[in-house]
Amino acid sequence: MAELIFMAGLGAGVGSILRFFMLDQLTRVSQLSTSWMVVIINLLAAFGMGYLSGLSLVLPWHTMVTTGIMGGFSTFSTPINELAQVLGNDDQSKRKLVLLKTGIMFTIGMPILILGRHFGLN
After folding, report:
1. How much is the pTM?
2. Closest to 51 (Cα-Cα) out of 121, 116, 112
3. Which contiguous run of DSSP H or E holds residue 24?
4. 74 exposed, middle or buried (CB, 10 Å; 0-12, 13-18, 19+)?
5. Which pLDDT value is given to residue 83?
6. pLDDT tens-digit profile of 29-49?
7. Torsion angle (degrees, nearest 10) of CA 44, 95, 84, 47
8. How far does the chain reach from its first CA to its final CA, in angstroms?
9. Residue 89 neighbours by CB distance under 10 Å
10. What sign has the CA pseudo-torsion 74, 111, 108, 24?
11. pLDDT mean across residues, the chain
């Protein structure tokens, strides 16, 4: 059990660094807001999670790359936090935008995860 916890923690650190690097690089080349970049990163993470779950990795490595790296790379807490903030807000346009981004992540994320798994299995 200690080995799995270590592998997950190590992977989470790697995933967080990858997310930070990717956000930094996207900011330099894109006009997208950070919150839209988070949507893109989470969709990439969904594909990656699907792909990796389709591979036949042994348990410690599976834990490191799925729970660890992909968990650290994705950041579903950011859109959920945005959603919680706008639900009590009177700004309808901001609320609609946050609902749109959250909807995109969860409705498009699932087919992307399934597509990634298909590639991982084949």
Report:
1. 0.85
2. 116
3. helix 2-29
4. buried
5. 85
6. 988 888 889 999 999 999 999
7. -10
8. 30
9. 10
10. positive
11. 91
Structure tokens, 93: 């346009």
Give 55's DSSP letter.
S
**What is the rounded radius of gyration, in angstroms, for the C-alpha atoms of the chain?**
16
Q: Which of 9, 15, 10, 4 is nearest to 41 (CA)?
A: 15
The one-character DSSP state at 63 is: I
Under the banding of pLDDT at 50, 70 and 90, the label for residue 71 is very high
For residue 33, the model assigns a pLDDT of: 86
Angle between helices 77-87 and 34-54 (to 10 degrees): 140
